[in-house]
Design a protein that fits this description.
mainly alpha; 2 domains
């Protein structure tokens, strides 16, 4: 068997396409990790600069002056805004896609405290959540490849629209009675096809939210103010992490002697979520009316555990940060558990649903073939 040059060119062309697709998949699914690494590098630079006695603005400008391309274009844009005289917080707002909103808000709290080093640890804790998103994305990638791929939608549609109607016509020409239990499937193929298209569409929407990250959330909030924040607050594991970040910031602010009302407001801003901020304003209003902080925080935690932890810290001799540390660890673990459970349930459920579609199609096709074979044709 001889292989022509045309065959080699075709195979080479297909290899290029497959390589390009593999790179696109790698690029998209590594986005959360690259965002995390960009933020981690920035925090490392800030921390090193503070150890050497430099303020964050000077550290960023000196690093950008090196011309290192690994820092990225957004880092140099941030440095340009700092050179124009803006503060770090204002410059970060001008480059919204450089750092996650939670990191920016937490650094702003550090500025209010007068020592950014106190919030560096909290920022690193928030970056660990990006790894969880990658694990979750791996589950969804399997589901997309096995269940919601466009190729399967095309194959399913072809069988339902072209192949199975032909088998039905053959049965009619042979004057064979159509199986009664298959009439509904035969008369409503668009419902099965539509269900597949809906599943694929939902995964496309999830992919956009996953790959887009904070940029997509900001775009949604631009057209429907507060929508992305309301959705994020309704997600159980996201809400647990907001409570964790809030309690960490609140503990540091209270230990630093910040007034309770201002501490609650600043701690809520570190979550970068409007819904959480609104609930924090209810806490502030309760404090203004004379309620104790340990009572007012019930607006943020329905379980009552946060209130119990604060009471122990208030009546004990320890610091708020130490008293709340174990609860923050529990919230992180619970959030990770909820996120992984949701990913497993969704992918497993879709496998079952996909199996039901395949079973319906197989029963439909083979029932007609069996009916044809069992019918006299002479």
């Amino acid at each position: 068997m001889q292989i022509s040059i045309a065959d080699i060119v075709v195979w080479f062309f297909w290899l290029l396409i497959q390589g390009a697709l593999a790179y696109v998949v790698y690029y998209l699914f590594s986005l959360p990790l690259r965002r995390k690494e960009r933020a981690r590098l920035f925090l490392d630079l800030i921390e090193i600069g503070l150890r050497n006695g430099q303020n964050p603005e000077a550290t960023v400008q000196s690093a950008a002056a090196s011309g290192d391309r690994l820092l990225g274009i957004r880092f140099h844009m941030l440095a340009a805004w700092l050179e124009s005289g803006l503060s770090l917080g204002a410059a970060l707002e001008r480059v919204p896609r450089f750092l996650p909103p939670q990191i920016v808000a937490t650094l702003r709290v550090g500025k209010e405290l007068g020592d950014i080093r106190k919030v560096i640890g909290a920022c690193r804790q928030q970056l660990e959540d990006a790894v969880n998103k990658v694990f979750q994305g791996q589950h969804y990638l399997v589901a997309v490849l096995l269940i919601a791929s466009p190729a399967w939608v095309v194959v399913f549609s072809t069988l339902m629209v072209f192949v199975l109607p032909k088998l039905k016509m053959i049965m009619q020409d042979m004057e064979i009675e159509f199986p009664a239990h298959l009439v509904w499937i035969s008369d409503h193929p668009h419902l099965l096809i539509g269900a597949q298209v809906v599943i694929f569409g939902v995964f496309c929407l999830g992919a956009v939210l996953y790959f887009g990250g904070p940029g997509v959330a900001a775009w949604i909030n631009k057209f429907v103010p507060g929508m992305a924040d309301r959705i994020a607050y309704r997600v159980p594991w996201r809400r647990k992490r907001m409570q964790r970040d809030f309690s960490a910031m609140l503990g540091m602010l209270l230990d630093a002697g910040v007034p309770e009302q201002e501490a609650v407001r600043l701690a809520a801003e570190s979550t970068a979520n409007r819904v959480f901020n609104d609930r924090a304003e209810q806490v502030v209003a309760a404090l203004k009316s004379g309620e104790k902080l340990t009572v007012a925080v019930q607006h943020l935690d329905d379980s009552g555990e946060f209130r119990w932890r604060l009471e122990n810290a208030a009546f004990g001799h320890g610091r708020f940060t130490e008293a709340l540390a174990s609860w923050q660890e529990a919230l992180s673990a619970r959030a990770f558990q909820l996120e992984q459970t949701a990913a497993q349930v969704i992918t497993s459920g879709l496998v079952v649903v996909n199996g039901m579609f395949v079973a319906a199609l197989a029963v439909f096709a083979f029932s007609m073939l069996i009916t044809i074979l069992n019918s006299p044709i002479w």
